[in-house]
Amino acid sequence: MKPAQFSYIAPETVEEVLAALAEHGDEAKVLAGGQSLVPMMNFRLARPSVIVDIGRLAADESLDGISVDEGTLRIGARVRHRQLEHFPANGLGPADGPLGSLLRGLARWVGHLPIRVRGTFGGSIAHADPAAEWCIMAQTLGAEMVVRSSTRPMRIVAAEDFFETVFTTSLEPEELLTEVRLPVLGPDWRVGFCEFARRAGDFAVVAALTALRIEDGSIVEARVGAGGVAGTPVRLRAAEAALVGAIPTPAVFHEAGLAATGEVDPSGDIHGSAGYRRDLTGVMVRRALGAESIPTPV
Amino acid sequence: MTESSITGLLESDCKTRLRLSVNGTERTVEVEPRRTLADALRDDCGLTGTHLGCEHGVCGACTVLIDGNPVRSCLMFAVQAADVDIRTVEGMASPDGTLNPLQESFMRHHGLQCGFCTPGFLLLSEAVLAARPDIDDAELREALSSNLCRCTGYQGIIDAVRAVRDAV
């Protein structure tokens, strides 16, 4: 299938991108890596009349950089999945730690190699597939999205206010996601991830991401999130509550998994019934909690 | 019609003249913005070795190399490819027709039957081996899972690429 007709503009500055978005409003779509947008255009599920390609913008630290600033990691929206996959160990210096491992490990779960070569981190976040690894990470760790437009001041949107439902965010048509900020995780954090998909490289049926801060042998902070169980990635508060204050043991992880199963309300589809996804959520949470490191897809 | 220029708004029904660098040769095409790179290669350049299967980035039959990286050419527009180095299956064999070692190996190890997926697998394999000449078997399987083949059951493809890796 071929995309419907569209006009195309590839500005050289962010200001020109913002001007084009302001001019064309919801007729326009931003094209970055194109690995989600172009399939939808080829299916004609998306028929934007103007494509604003940000691929020709001059290199820009905000859009293309990965950096740490006072406990906050900034990832430019145009950073490709492949760059995160190959981000050097300790690439963030002392701040690398569990978050660096998580970024490198999760990147390998995003699609296949040719998708990771082109697709961008910000594109995945803005596309807002509820089963996408980066969206699950953003929701679970409480990311902040940096959003610019030519019509109002820059704003920062918390992940929970950003993801609205399937493929839908609180981005306005004239706005551009330029950067995502994540809290750096110190060495006392332990991160885990588990995903079940029907084939390597597919979107998850269900995936879970966990982060525990452990002090003197007890869990003092817990973040548990899942994708594939609702219109957006979700934080699993009951599972978190089952963990905080406990000593991390397989029995506690099992309890947290049961709590996760109890608090999600997925719908079923051809890949799995609602009950199956509910059970799977608990299993994914339990396995993520028990993981010694971020697993590889194969 | 604009002259090989991608500045300003390109109207949806207007053709833009582009220069594409394909297998080291410059080719001039005139395309609407919606023309995918795959269609530009096939229909405007006459290079029909790049195959189109699913046209939504899943099957990998249309894989080409962009600056050495494997890319789905159905998910890229020709207007995005004006200043990159494009390699297609037509550029793999020597000008005298001598096959590339991967092409030889696919023949020897039953890495193809109908051949529809083969160009994509060849370019994917070439990029993977160029980036990681010592890639281990598990990672090779993972990399080759990027593309679909409905004939071989994949084992012949894996054997073919592994043989080239091990011959180096």
Fold topology:
The complex is a heterodimer of chains A (298) and B (168).
Chain A: E1 7-9, H1 14-24, E2 28-31, H2 37-42, E3 50-53, H3 61-64, E4 66-69, E5 72-76, H4 81-85, H5 97-107, H6 113-118, H7 121-127, H8 133-141, E6 144-148, E7 155-158, H9 159-162, E8 163-165, E9 168-169, E10 176-183, E11 189-196, E12 206-215, E13 218-227, E14 234-235, H10 237-243, H11 250-263, H12 274-290
Parallel strand pairs in A: 1-3, 2-3
Antiparallel strand pairs in A: 4-5, 5-10, 6-7, 6-10, 8-9, 11-12, 12-13, 13-14
Chain B: E1 16-22, E2 25-31, H1 37-44, E3 63-66, E4 69-72, E5 85-87, H2 101-108, H3 118-131, H4 137-144, H5 155-167
Parallel strand pairs in B: 1-5
Antiparallel strand pairs in B: 1-2, 3-4, 3-5
Helix pairs in contact in B: 2-5
Instruction: Compute the number of helices of chain B.
Output: 5
Cα-to-Cα separation, first versus last residue of chain B: 49 Å
Number of domains of chain B: 2
Query: Tally of extended strands of chain A?
Result: 14
CATH class of the largest domain in chain B: Alpha Beta
Helical residue percent band of chain A: 25-40%
Instruction: Please tell me how large the radius of gyration of chain A is.
Output: 19 Å
Top-tier CATH class of the largest domain in chain A: Alpha Beta
Number of strands of chain B: 5
Helix-strand topology string of chain A:
EHEHEHEEHHHHHEEHEEEEEEEHHH
Features:
heterodimer, A: alpha+beta, Uridine Diphospho-n-acetylenolpyruvylglucosamine Reductase, domain 2, Uridine Diphospho-n-acetylenolpyruvylglucosamine Reductase, domain 3, Enolase-like, domain 1, 3 domains, five-stranded antiparallel sheet, 12 helices, 24% strand, B: alpha+beta, Ubiquitin-like (UB roll), DNA polymerase, domain 1, 2 domains, 5 helices
